[in-house]
Amino acid sequence: MMLKSIKVRDYMTRGLITLKPDMDLFDAISILQTNRISGAPVVDQNGHLIGVLSEGDCLNAIIKDIYYEEAGGKVSECMSTDVETISPEDDIVDIAVDFNKKRKRRFPVIEDDKLVGQISQRDILRAVLEIAQHPSHG
Q1: What digits encode the pLDDT tens for the residues 2-17?
Q2: Domains of the chain, first to last
């Protein structure tokens, strides 16, 4: 099975739902729920990735709120800013290995300092299936 020559750009998701840093946390949670996604990238007005807000980040914020009795807050106060990103030119095999090693579910894809997509474990499995069904690719 020839996965080696396949790039992230061939299988990444492009039309991402993104959040803004100054958005109210509850609005962000609502967006995650409505779209049935477990997290979303946070971008500034220039399309630069500045963080990721996951369901876990939201839960942490709400637990803090319970203790300090102040509900809500902004996305920027709750998001994770230590985000590992990849390039559209990375090989899918390397990313599959990273998923396994780093226990991540998705990586944002950055090109020219801009968020251009995201790749998830599901996207890689889709690539594997397509190649298995059409071996002539490799």
Answers
A1: 666 789 999 999 999 9
A2: 8-137 (3.10.580.10)
